[in-house]
Specification:
72 residues; 2 domains
């Protein structure tokens, strides 16, 4: 199990990787100003996706993650 600190670090790395530093900072600011309604978010996150879509997406994620670990 990873620590809370590691989760925060990986989360920030993911945000910066996906959005860049400036947009990641903006995202955090927006989140603090307008707290996320987790219940609504959870209901809608997979809206319109089939189980097959999700399985394919997970497979792609795992493949990309494995490739990145080999490079590191």
């Amino acid at each position: 199990m990873i620590t809370d600190k590691e989760i925060k670090e990986k989360g920030m790395q993911a945000l910066i990787g996906a959005l860049g530093r400036a947009q990641a900072s903006r995202f955090i600011t927006l989140t603090l100003q307008e707290p996320l309604n987790y219940t609504e978010w959870r209901k809608n996150i997979f809206d319109g996706q089939t189980m097959e879509d999700l399985i394919e997406e997970i497979g792609e994620f795992e493949k990309n993650r494995d490739n990145k670990e080999l490079i590191s």
